[in-house]
What does this fold into?
Amino acid sequence: MNQQEHDSRATGSRATGATPPAIALSGVNLSLGRGAARVHILKDITLEIGQGEAVSLVGPSGSGKSTLLMLMAGLERPDTGTIRVADTDLGALDEDGLARFRGRHVGIVFQSFHLIPTMTALENVAVPLELAGAGNAFSRAEKELRSVGLGERLSHYPAQLSGGEQQRVAIARALAPNPAILVADEPTGNLDEATGKQITDIILSGHEERRTTLVLVTHDPALAARCGRVIRMRSGKAEAGEPARAVQA
It folds into this structure.
């Protein structure tokens, strides 16, 4: 093992050669609260995720998985350290710049679906595209919804859809702008086992077909094992990345 490979394993990062990583964090720390109530959530995180890689973040509740994902998506800012996503320094962007960056480069899927209840499935996917200036927003939205098996649900409102169908709408919304990076925070957490497997299949097939970089937070070892690499979070620190097949060993 050469020194670069050794350093990569030690930090949970991946050597990417001449190609810049999709996501790179260096010396990232984040604390929340004030005074005696201040809690150090993330502690000196340094890692890289390669372009087109599928990575799962696992670890106990409170270990910092979701917070780390929010930093990668530009939804939180670190106290110290640097974060580069799609070869862009997120620290150099203001809030409007971060919003525009996410709209172009990052798709986000949450455990809760975050659909607008007064909009149909088609509108929930199309309106963000329209706001981003896409001229063919509704045709693209329809295509994405059909690709996740909701071609017969275009005009349905969220309350008329099952939990699994609502998550499919959320996935279609995240993938419609063709982002280079998809982050998903416990996307099957509110679903039964069978529906959760269907959602997992959709996310992973989307990753494989589009060659997106996928970062997935999960408590499910079987789901984590379907990604290419596992990064374990423990007490705010990222432990060495490992092949996904080792997660159930």
Q: What stands out?
A: Residues 10 and 105 are 28 Å apart (CA to CA). Residues 193-210 form the longest helix (18 residues). The longest strand covers residues 39-49.
